[in-house]
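step 4 of 6: structure.
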Amino acid sequence: MGDTTAAPRLGTLIIGNCQAGVQLASTLRELGDTDPITLVGEEPHAPYQRPPLSKAFLKGEATADSLAFRTHDFYREHSIDLVPRERIFRIIRNADGGVATAESGRTFAFARLALTTGAVPRTIPFEGSELEGVSYLRTATEATVLEQQLREARNVVVVGGGFIGLEVAAGARAAGKNVTVLEAAPRLVGRAVSEQTSEFYLQAHRRRGIRVVLNAQVVRFVGEHDRVTGVELGPRDGDGSGEIVAADVVLIGVGVVPRTELAVQLGIEVENGIVVDARALASDGLTVAAGDCANMPNPSIGDFGVGRIRLESVQNAVEQAKVAAATLLGLPAEHRTVPWFWSDQADLKLQIAGLSGGHDRVVLRGEPDSEKFSVLYYRDGRLIAADCINSPLDFMAVKNALHRGLSVPADVATDTTVPLKKLFVAVETADAGRAVAAPVAVDLAPPAVPVPAGSPAA
Amino acid sequence: MPTVSYVAFDGTETIVTGFAGDSVMETAVRNGVPGIVAECGGSLSCATCHVFLCADSAGLFPPKLDLEDDMLDGTAIDREDNSRLSCQLKLTDDVSVHVQTPETQV
């Protein structure tokens, strides 16, 4: 790829100045790539960590600067050209490269292309969505506005009982606000955790004084003088009258939608994200994609949980970006990992190891009322995932077990007097050997040649 | 200004000038110091910023809390008596910190 003519040397264009984009650029350098790297994105800030936006940032304990992934010196020393405030809207490409055009008219020629375009909040088209005080949370700019609004608010309504919504709700409640969470489904965080974990969070947040309404039907947002004052609910449980929940601030957190416009325009296959293979390569065989925007073969080590998946997590963005970088350089790499996730809500630390999809048995380790317990998921008698609440030891044990292709027998896992890691056993299934032997991309990286190695870090 | 010396498993030393209030982990990550992964960005969720705190620096930081202690039981390289998670080591003015990074974090 690349340097076949006397024309100026073209390099890699990475679209999306985010976690995956920064990692992809850093890894290219670690792997010895000396071609130009341009990291272009819409946001005005240098790339920053997103997870604290719904936690420390809203408490005023962090700023976009303090959350920056790398210093400006790092980008300069590694010859990574950081281009903020540019939204790419058109790409023309062929097998040798192409040109991307930003809305400003600026163009970026490239030999190699990576899409780390991320996702945007799913919007809901209710009447009153445009009222001041109604917001979404994805970027530092949005978090800055929300932080100011929350400071002055008395009544906070969160639409959506997923991780983002519950994190914001917990923070606002801890700051003394009246907080209501409206969830359309019959349980909280339904997409990510089991019924046991959902029920625990329902009770735990209610104990802390948050009002949680399940099966809530939001009808519209009401306001006065262009400012939101409440959220009107539809009738529930045969109750004929719709309630208006008072609100000075409404946060809508009902999931995200992967950004695939550029991929569609390139004619790349898209289905719930940019469809890529285990090497992070898209259907054109040229472009790589990584992070929240990518739909990939299930990367779980072990052979359970077949099918494709799109993961919204820091860990996935980082590890998939490393694989994508290797692929761009023609190096062998495959995305195999133990997916993991975390969510901090008030003093409740949730750590999830593995993917529980397809489980056929759930084992409770510990007592939910103690707010320190784990939910272990099994499939065909084998441990495949765990939700660990205030139980980092269990989390680390499960993560390590899955990494090593080991399991913990369900009948002894409930014994909380014994650390989980003392209960590991080899898995007696046909794919056990394969699980242990599965390649992990980071192990394949050859030493960096000309450029000082950067940290393979988030 | 505080400085941090990171000595990698192979003996390579990287010295970085940091800022009071930043952690030893943040200082490493922002400057691309190898040997610190820090998947969770400092929220005590991943144990991939494990360091061995050198004896001369031990008195510069408060002792670890229970959660850090628990997480240290799950590091990729087994913990030692001087193990810490570097996200919990906050720099103060003009300190000179020495840590060693383990062979691997994941």
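step 5 of 6: annotate
 - Chain B has a mean pLDDT of 93.
 - The first helix of chain B runs from residue 24 to 30.
step 6 of 6: archive
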